Structure formats: structure tokens, C-alpha cells
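Sequence and fold:
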Amino acid sequence: MRFLSFRSTNFVFTLCCLGLIAGCSESGPTRYRIQGTVEFDGQPVPAGAIYFDPDSSKGNKGPQGYATITDGKFDTELGGKGHVGGAMTVRINGLASLRTTTDDDTPVPPLFPEYIESVELDRSDDMRGFIVPKDNAGPTEPAVTEGAATEGGP
């Protein structure tokens, strides 16, 4: 009788472990890595964020992708989330410094107004370079340069 009790306990424990593993796995659409560069006025953007929003007006849906921009480079595998591919609205926010406040606790102003462009991303890992025009004043036409990241990666 003791043997059956041990087997029952072991079985329940195994089921609980399998349930936890299944519950902790990432679900949802496949996400793809994107890495590359962001320039403004011919220079790497020192700091900021880049967002990849599925363009619902073109029938694309799914979760947002994002990455941090550091020294003009971004990579969704380094503290971000990959994109789902297809028609995307890319939003870029740039700062002149990695610091978010000045010495007197005033927020660091943005390097430029939020830059927005529409792109089509393959449903695969990708490298892209984005160029924010100097006269950026909001939504503009695409200014994407594919493969602008160096061969060694960002």
C-alpha cells in the first residue's frame, strides 16, 4: 500500500511539473530578431528606443517589437522583443545622452521629434539601418537602408 501511495505522489508531482513547464513557455506568434543602426544628421543616435508596431491598416496584427538604441545600434535580442514581420510602423525616439536627466534633474530633451515610417519586414531575422532626416518633424516617407549594419553586427 505504501508503494502505491509513493507512486501516486510521484505521478501528481510529475503532472504539476509538466503543467508549470507548459504554462511558462512563450506562446503567441513567432517573433523575429532585428538588429541594425540608427543615424540622425549623419551621426549615430546616442540613445533612445525603436518600436516595431504591426500596421493594422494593412491587415497586420500581433504584439509590438522593440529595442533600446545605444551608440547608434539596436538589437531586439539585447533587452527587447522581436517583431512579427509584415507591414510595420516603425517609431524611433532619440536622446542626445544615455542619461535621462541632467545634473539638476531636468529631463534630457529628445534629439528629434518621434520619427515614424512604414516598412515591410520579412518574417525572418533581419539587419536594417534607419536614417532619421535632419528636418524630421513627424511622420515622413520611408528612409530605410537595408543591410546598413556592418558585417560584424551592431
Notes: The radius of gyration is 22 Å.
